[in-house]
Amino acid sequence: MLVLGVETSCDETSVSIVRDGKEVLANTIYTQIDIHKLYGGVVPEVASRHHLRKITYVFSECFKEAGCKPEDIDLVCVTTHPGLIGSLLVGINAAKTFALCFNKKLIEVDHIVGHIYANYIEHDFKFPMIALVVSGGHTELVLMKKHYDFTVLGETLDDAVGESYDKVGRVMNLEYPAGAKVDKLAHEGSPTYDLPIPYVNKDSYDFSFSGLKSAVLNLSNKAKMKHEELDLKNLASSFQNSVVRVLTDKTIKACLEYNVKQVVIAGGVAANRGLRETLMTEASEKGIEVCFPKMVYCTDNAAMIAVAGYFKYLEENN
Ligand code: KG4
Ligand code: ZN
C-alpha cells in the first residue's frame, strides 16, 4: 500500500511517500529553522505563511523523488493535532484537496503518535512496549499493548524536555534550537554544578522541567551579580545529567512494572547523545531493548505521519 504523509504542525513543511509502513520512497522536508532563529523561537504567523509558500513545491519534489504519480497513492495521512493551528491548516487543506481530487481516503494523524511510529521504519514493534516521547512540545511515557493502542502513563506538568533545552540554551546565549548545541557542550564538560533531579514524585510517571530550568537561570543570574563567569560546558553537562537521570529512571521503572522488553524513543530529543548512551546501557543491563529513530526521523517529518496513518487505517479496517 502506498501512503502519502503530510506534516506542517510546526516549522517543517514535509511530504512523504511510504510503502507498507516501512519503505520510505521519499521524505521531502523544507525546514524554516533559519527563519525562526532570528526570533529565538517559532513565530506562529511566520510559520503558517512559509508553509503556504512551500507546500505545493514540497508536494511536487516528493512525487518527483519517489517516482510516483498521484494516482498511485492508496491512502493520504495528515497531521491534524497537536500543533500551531495556522500551520496545521495548511497541511490539512493540501491533504484534503489531494484526497478529494484523486478520490483517496484521508486519515487524521496525531503528531505525537507520528513520532512514536518514526521508530517502526527501522525497528519492528514488540508488544507490550513503552514509548518515551521527548520533543520540543511534548514529554510523555506511553504504554502500547498493540498497534495504535496508547495508554499515557505520565507526562510533563510544565515544560517539555526539548523546550527546557531551548530555554536553558537561551540562558547560555546559544542559538535556537539549542538542544543539539547543549548536548555537544555537555559532552565536553563534567556535571560539576549542583542542580536538582526533578523526579516530581518517585512513584509517579509525570515529569516537570521548569524547576530545573529556573535553577539554571538562578545560577546564571547569581554569577552575573558577582561578575563571575559560568563554565558553560560544565553547566550543560550538569543540566543534561539531571534530565537524562530522570528520563532514564522513569522509563526503566515503567518497563519493569509493565513487563516490557522494548522501549522506543520518539521526538527531537531522541537525538540526544547523553540520553541514548545512558538509556542503552542501563536498559540493556535489565534485558530491555532500546530503539531510536534514524536522526532524520527524530525531528518533524512526514514519513512518520505516513507510517502512523497506515497503522491507524489497518486498525480501523480489520
Ligand atoms: O520533535 P521536534 O521536532 O519538536 C516537536 O515536535 O515539538 O523536536 C525539536 C526539539 C527542539 O527543542 C530541539 O532543541 C530538541 O528537539 N533537540 C535536542 C537535540 N536535538 C534536537 N534536544 C537535546 N539534545 C539533542 N541532541
Ligand atoms: Zn514533532
Describe it.
With about 325 residues, the protein is α/β, with parallel strands linked by helices. It has two domains: about 1-115 and about 300-315, ATPase, nucleotide binding domain (Nucleotidyltransferase, domain 5); about 125-290, ATPase, nucleotide binding domain (Nucleotidyltransferase, domain 5), CATH 3.30.420.40. The chain has eleven helices and ten strands. It has helices at about 35, 45-65, 85-100, 110-115, 160-170, 180-190, 210-225, 230-255, 275-285, 295-300, 305-315, and strands spanning about 1-5, 10-20, 25-30, 75-80, 105-110, 130-135, 140-145, 150-155, 260-265, 290. The strands form two sheets. It has a five-stranded mixed sheet with strand order 3-2-1-4-5, with helices on both faces. The longest helix is centred in the last third of the chain and has 26 residues, at about 230-255. It is globular. The chain starts with a strand and ends with a helix. The mean pLDDT is about 95. Bound molecules: 5'-O-[(R)-(carboxyoxy)(hydroxy)phosphoryl]adenosine (KG4) and zinc ion. The site of zinc ion (ZN) has 5 residues, from α4.
Which terms would index this structure?
single chain; 318 residues; alpha/beta; Nucleotidyltransferase, domain 5; five-stranded mixed β-sheet; globular; binds 5'-O-[(R)-(carboxyoxy)(hydroxy)phosphoryl]adenosine; binds zinc ion
